[in-house]
TrEMBL record, chain A:
<keyword id="KW-1003">Cell membrane</keyword>
<dbReference type="Pfam" id="PF02322">
    <property type="entry name" value="Cyt_bd_oxida_II"/>
</dbReference>
<keyword id="KW-0472">Membrane</keyword>
<keyword id="KW-0479">Metal-binding</keyword>
<feature type="transmembrane region" description="Helical">
    <location>
        <begin position="249"/>
        <end position="274"/>
    </location>
</feature>
<feature type="transmembrane region" description="Helical">
    <location>
        <begin position="83"/>
        <end position="103"/>
    </location>
</feature>
<keyword id="KW-0249">Electron transport</keyword>
<feature type="transmembrane region" description="Helical">
    <location>
        <begin position="157"/>
        <end position="184"/>
    </location>
</feature>
<feature type="transmembrane region" description="Helical">
    <location>
        <begin position="224"/>
        <end position="242"/>
    </location>
</feature>
Automatic annotation (TrEMBL), chain B:
<feature type="transmembrane region" description="Helical">
    <location>
        <begin position="91"/>
        <end position="115"/>
    </location>
</feature>
<feature type="transmembrane region" description="Helical">
    <location>
        <begin position="409"/>
        <end position="430"/>
    </location>
</feature>
<dbReference type="Pfam" id="PF01654">
    <property type="entry name" value="Cyt_bd_oxida_I"/>
</dbReference>
<feature type="transmembrane region" description="Helical">
    <location>
        <begin position="127"/>
        <end position="146"/>
    </location>
</feature>
<keyword id="KW-0560">Oxidoreductase</keyword>
<keyword id="KW-0249">Electron transport</keyword>
<keyword id="KW-0472">Membrane</keyword>
<feature type="transmembrane region" description="Helical">
    <location>
        <begin position="20"/>
        <end position="41"/>
    </location>
</feature>
<feature type="transmembrane region" description="Helical">
    <location>
        <begin position="375"/>
        <end position="397"/>
    </location>
</feature>
């Protein structure tokens, strides 16, 4: 076993898990802006539950991407170039979403504000779906040749696993966001969110569970059965707690489900990082896709220092903004009038 | 156009666009931190207003930098997969460190700064903007280490056809990075200085136009207040603009000196490391000592097609030698001397390797597009110099406490905001285009056949079609164009709104109803 590449495989799984856990709820909140919030005040409550933290959450994606580049350049190069079209859409989605978060409140007319709402909704949806599809394809494979380049045209990646992965992340984000709103708001939003979680939780987690089971079966992985079992237990736990309206425990249950699910998927895929559907000889694995031990050692030192730091100050941010946001806390919109 | 050409256009457009936002983020971030510190220490209202107003503009701009930054990271893998495979071992490390050590810090702490007003203890809140803005500078260092490695690879060996890192210390203390870093950071402060100067000038001028401020017989300002607009245009408001203007002018002038000194050091390194880039920037065909002030293509042959078609119109003798070697007589190699040297070292034709696609076996042109390097270099220096002169003139003109009544000077001051942006863009275009035909320029001091370099033609993703590239080029470029308009409209609206645009309480809007249960001190 390649010790360092395996460590980095785990670290990248951690980064993706961290990304889905954290940005999961702000992507979901973005989607709920159009579907769940009843009026302008509620939309602003939703937005402000994630206002102080969404940007920090998104950095997990940037770090996951950059860490893949540094630790597994072949994985990064093959996966990103093969998924050129969907990743372009993800980029467009993320650009619009970020800008809309900041600019929505600065809109002068109702129509413009509505347009930014759509940008947040579609941006969150496309980003969640695209990232889900990308992760799923990385675990189930793409038509790659010996050089690691995609064959079969711009849409050769489009298959049932891409759709499954996309749906899995979208559905997870939605339910995760509802659970998060149960913790972060009060009043009408809180009660409605709790009701929706109790009703839809098992359905929303099904695609993610199906993806995990599929990867375990495809790889005949015995090692992944343990985390898979844990994921199922967490799902049942979260569902049970939802029926009893224990918001904190629901959120924790969902988090464990996600992390165990990601662990199951990555364990089952190991040692492949990106299989080729053309020929198993072309599979990218932790050994043939990784950087040299020198670079990995350097990066390990940096990560050993950096990752706990990030977790610490990010946790502190959540602590600072731990109180529930409700409609009373949202000041009247401030329209800027020209003084000169 | 084939995939390679489109990918190059896309890289150029996305990078230059991203770099419109980044310098303002870096420069304005630290300036706002200093303003907040001044408020913290003096307790003066004007510093609080300054912090809030410039902080608002900073945030409008910051988010665009974040939104476009992620494209930079993704496009290496998407459009330049062969490049990523070749360099990932070395190039990926600074990118990953940037994300983990700098960008996380910047994003998280900025969230705390925006929403933490009145929620965090004052000192801690002040610390958040300092940490966030220092992190953005730290972030620039990592990115410039990565870029400098492409300009001048060090600490590297070729193993199995790919570049591998053997000496991280060498990579992170690359002399190219050590001169590029201050040059870029000073360039960012030039942008921030010009921004402060132009906008403050605009407001001071409007105050004079509206008759709020007047001048007495000796030409000294008599500060007044607007009766109708209350706190929005009172005496403190005047203090905000005049101090911002002075800070901006000083920042711009100091930045220019830093840019000039670091630029000089950079040019000297460039002549050793990438002599062709410097020769092309000079339109220097033959070895010589003179610096061309103006060279034009000989139009008789339908424009300059080779270096010999370039005619020097006016040269300053000895200046080129001074720039390159700190004396007036050492000759600097021209294009005609360098071309055979490059051909001898790196070959005359691209290898017959499928990696080069249709370009396999074709002749290599070692001369970068000279119009671009020549004019890019000059535009960078001219625009940079212009903004420093403007800053000096501004300080002189405002010595009696306000700006002249002249409308056109005011317009020039606002227009002047653009000059440092242009200088930055020109500088990047020059330095990146001047590296061609290499994506990783060879380091002349490496010996033997294992030289670490890569032709741009070999770097593009082989599996991606021209159609896909075109799709992303068109979608990103049109979104960028649209969002640039949005950003400028918003900035303009907040500038016109004055300080009240960032402080609702000045407008008579109650900011928050119940402070006791306040969970956010700011709300989207």
């Amino acid at each position: 076993m390649d010790y360092l590449p395996t460590l980095w495989f785990i670290l990248i799984a951690v980064l993706w898990g961290g990304y889905l856990f954290l940005e999961g709820f702000d992507l979901g909140v973005g989607m709920l802006m159009k579907t769940f919030a009843k009026n302008e005040k509620q939309r602003r409550v939703l937005l402000n539950t994630v206002g102080p933290v969404w940007d920090g959450n998104e950095v997990w994606l940037i770090t996951a991407g950059a860490a893949t580049f540094a630790a597994f350049p072949y994985w990064y190069a093959s996966l990103f170039s093969a998924l050129y079209v969907p990743l372009t859409l993800v980029l467009v989605a993320l650009i619009f979403r970020a800008v809309a978060f900041e600019y929505r409140g600065k809109a002068h007319t109702h129509a413009v504000r509505k347009a930014w709402d759509w940008a947040i909704f579609l941006g969150s949806f496309v980003a969640a779906f695209g990232v889900g599809a990308m992760l799923a394809l990385s675990t189930t494979g793409l038509p790659l040749n010996a050089n690691g380049d995609r064959v079969g045209g711009p849409f050769a990646w489009f298959n049932i696993y891409a759709v499954l992965g996309g749906l899995a992340v979208v559905a997870f984000c939605l339910i995760h966001a509802l659970a998060f709103l149960g913790l972060k708001t009060d009043g009408d939003i809180r009660t409605r969110a709790a009701r929706l979680v109790a009703r839809w939780l098992p359905v929303a987690l099904l695609p993610m569970a199906a993806w995990a089971v599929a990867v375990v079966l495809l790889n005949h992985s015995m090692a992944a059965v343990a985390p898979l079992g844990l994921a199922v237990c967490a799902l049942l736990f979260a569902w049970f707690q939802a029926s009893k309206n224990h918001e904190g425990l629901v959120f924790i249950g969902l988090g464990i489900f996600l992390l165990a699910g990601v662990a199951a998927i990555f364990t089952a895929a190991y040692p492949n990082v990106l299989p080729s559907t053309i020929d198993a000889a072309f599979n990218l694995t932790v050994s043939n896709a990784s950087s040299t031990p020198y670079t990995l050692r350097l990066m390990s030192i940096v990560a050993a220092f950096g990752l706990p730091m990030v977790l610490a100050y990010q946790a502190w941010t959540y602590w600072v903004f731990r109180k529930r946001v409700t409609e009373v806390h949202i000041p009247e919109a401030h329209t800027v009038t020209s003084i000169v | 156009m084939d995939a390679l050409e489109i990918a190059r256009w896309q890289f150029g457009i996305t990078t230059v666009y991203h770099f419109l936002m980044v310098p303002l983020t870096i420069g304005l971030g630290l300036t706002v931190a200093v303003m907040q510190t001044a408020w913290h220490r003096s307790g003066k209202e004007e510093y609080l207003r300054m912090t809030k107003f410039w902080g608002k503009l900073f945030l409008i701009n910051f988010i665009m930098g974040v939104a476009t930054g992620i494209v930079q990271e993704f496009q290496f893998g998407m459009a330049w997969s062969e490049y990523s495979r070749f360099v990932g071992d070395v190039f990926g490390a600074p990118l990953a460190m940037e994300a983990l050590l700098a960008f996380f810090l910047e994003s998280v702490l900025l969230g705390l700064w925006i929403f933490g007003w009145d929620r965090l203890p004052k000192r801690l809140h002040l610390a958040t903007i300092w940490i966030a803005s220092l992190a953005s500078i730290f972030s620039a260092y990592f990115i410039l280490v990565a870029n400098s490695w492409m300009q001048h690879p060090v600490g590297t060996e070729i193993v199995d056809g790919r570049a591998t890192m053997v000496d991280a210390w060498a990579v992170f203390t690359n002399n190219t990075a050590l001169v590029t870093f201050p040059h870029t950071i000073f360039g960012a402060f030039a942008v921030a200085g010009g921004f402060l100067l132009g906008i403050s000038w605009y407001h001071l001028h409007k105050r004079r136009q509206s008759g709020i401020d007047t001048v007495d017989a000796s030409g000294k300002v008599v500060v007044g207040e607007s009766a109708t607009l209350g706190k929005n245009r009172d005496k403190v408001d005047y203090q905000v603009w005049i101090k911002s203007l002075r800070i901006g002018a000083v920042v711009a002038m100091v930045a220019f000196m830093g840019v000039a000194l670091s630029g000089h050091a950079q040019a000297q390194l460039m002549i050793q490391q990438q002599p062709m880039k410097m020769a092309a920037a000079e339109a220097a065909c033959h070895d010589g000592t003179g610096f061309s002030l103006l060279s034009v293509g000989d139009l008789r042959g339908g424009g300059a097609t080779t270096c010999d078609d370039v005619v020097g119109v006016f040269e300053i003798p000895g200046l080129l030698s001074f720039l390159a070697h700190d004396n007036f007589t050492t000759e600097v190699k021209g294009v005609n001397t360098l071309l055979p040297e490059y051909q001898e070292k790196y070959g005359t034709h691209l290898p017959d390797n499928p990696i080069y696609g249709d370009r396999a076996g074709t002749e290599i042109n070692y001369l970068p597009v000279m119009e671009v390097t020549y004019w890019g270099f000059r535009l960078m220096i001219t625009l940079g110099g212009l903004s420093a002169v403007a800053a000096a003139v501004a300080l002189w003109l405002t010595r009696k406490g306000t700006v002249p009544h002249s409308k056109w000077i005011s317009r020039l001051a606002v227009l002047g905001i653009l000059a440092p942006f242009g200088g930055n863009a020109a500088g990047w275009i020059f330095t990146e285009m001047g590296r061609q035909p290499f994506v990783v320029a060879p380091n002349p001091s490496f010996q033997g056949i294992d030289q670490v370099f890569m032709y741009t033609a070999a770097a593009v993703s082989p599996g991606v079609s021209a159609g896909e590239m075109l799709f992303s080029l068109i979608s990103l470029t049109s979104i960028y164009a649209f969002l640039l308009v949005v950003e400028v409209v918003l900035l303009t609206r907040y500038v016109r709104g004055g300080i009240g645009s960032a402080m609702p309480e000045l407008d008579g809007h109650p900011d928050d109803q119940d402070k006791d249960t306040d969970v956010l001190s700011f709300a989207y």
